[in-house]
Inverse folding.
């Protein structure tokens, strides 16, 4: 996790841990202009809280989070193929929701300095 950016989070797939961040300027522009699957970020957050999200929402948030830490788009797509697509939805939904929440609130309360 980035010490510089309180919005960064990590995810472990297999034996490896990856950094994710939606707070990168390019990613924030994508979220601002296009949203995720046509939905603004706040609407997605509500969707995760109410269970009204799609598999595509999960994949796109995780993809943008990887890209936001410098993972090339092609590599991010391969990681999604290996660890997200075709796998159980719940764990990845929780990771995507946590990543999106981090964009709004930064570090968890217990981690504030």
């Amino acid at each position: 996790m980035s010490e510089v950016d309180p919005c960064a989070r990590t995810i472990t797939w297999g034996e490896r841990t990856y950094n994710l961040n939606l707070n990168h300027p390019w990613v924030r522009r994508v979220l601002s202009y296009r949203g995720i699957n046509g939905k603004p970020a706040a609407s997605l957050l509500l969707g995760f809280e109410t269970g009204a999200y799609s598999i595509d929402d999960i994949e796109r948030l995780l993809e943008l989070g990887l890209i936001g830490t410098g993972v090339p788009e092609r590599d991010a797509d391969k990681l999604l193929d290996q660890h997200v697509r075709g796998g159980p939805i719940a764990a990845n939904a929780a990771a995507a929701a946590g990543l999106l929440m981090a964009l709004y609130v930064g570090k968890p309360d217990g981690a504030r300095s």
Notes: The helical segments are 25-33, 41-50, 55-67, 73-83, 89-105. The radius of gyration is 13 Å.
